[in-house]
Specification:
239 residues; alpha+beta; Jelly Rolls; Arc Repressor Mutant, subunit A; 2 domains; four-stranded antiparallel sheet; 9 helices; 22% strand; globular
Length: 239
């Protein structure tokens, strides 16, 4: 069930057969969620860790006004609540943006991994560090980049993350999110998002139709985004 997670962790360092079996034995249960349903609620105290198998999900925060800010887009292979293993109480919610299928591991099983498999534990630790690095990049993009550059950066990042789990077709990938959801990623209105999207289209950088994004000029898109993938720690080396 955890093939995407193994692909992602294996991007950073070699995973032994024993470590693969440990993960497979930990994530033994499966659950499905419909779109717009919370997988984890803010304020919850989960007793399990959840890995996304299929679909797209998002971490989010709600304001008293009812406005929502999406703080992370989650793709297959992401452990959506590993921080709950140590933090205990979730400070933000996780919602299914599409129909999602997840695998579940009890915290006791994760604890046995941290007690007996130090290398695998370091890879899981690295996964949380990369999560934090992604948050920092989003913060910089939100505060200091033009919205067209912020969207360009988001497209570059998602394309790379989906490529790791073999869910891209060259420069093309499926992104079944609504304009309202993407506006919540950028922290702008739907009308403003549509103007920003048209700007990238008119520059010949991307096409975006029927939830399929195609990068037409990868070099110029990366220049626009000032995209440097160092924060994703994709180099393969001992950890």
């Amino acid at each position: 069930m955890v093939d995407a997670l193994l692909l992602k962790l294996g991007q950073h360092d070699r995973i032994s057969d024993e470590e693969r079996e440990l993960l497979k034995r930990a994530f033994t249960r499966e659950r499905a969620y419909s779109a717009d349903r919370d997988i984890v609620s803010a304020g919850a105290r989960p007793s399990v860790c959840t890995t996304l198998l299929d679909g797209f999900a998002a971490r989010y925060k709600m304001l008293a006004s009812g406005k929502r800010q999406i703080t992370a887009i989650l793709v297959p292979g992401d452990i959506i609540d590993l921080n709950g293993f140590l933090c205990k109480t979730m400070d933000q919610g996780v919602v299914a943006l599409t129909a999602c299928r997840v695998a579940i591991a009890d915290h006791d099983s994760i604890g046995r991994i941290t007690d007996t498999a130090p290398h695998l534990t370091r890879l899981l630790w690295l996964d949380t560090l990369i999560d934090a690095a992604i948050h920092r990049e989003w913060l910089v993009a939100m505060g200091r980049r033009r919205k067209s550059a912020q969207l360009a950066h988001f497209i570059c990042e998602i394309h790379m993350r989906l490529g790791i789990i073999e869910q891209t077709d060259g420069h093309r990938f499926h992104l079944p999110l609504s304009q309202a959801e993407l506006a919540d990623v950028l922290g702008i209105s739907v009308v403003h998002f549509n103007r920003v999207l048209q700007e990238l289209r008119q520059q010949g950088l991307i096409t975006w139709s029927n939830h399929t994004v195609e990068i037409r000029d990868a070099h110029r898109l990366r220049q626009t985004a000032e995209f440097d993938p160092t924060y994703l720690s994709l180099q393969f080396e001992p950890r």
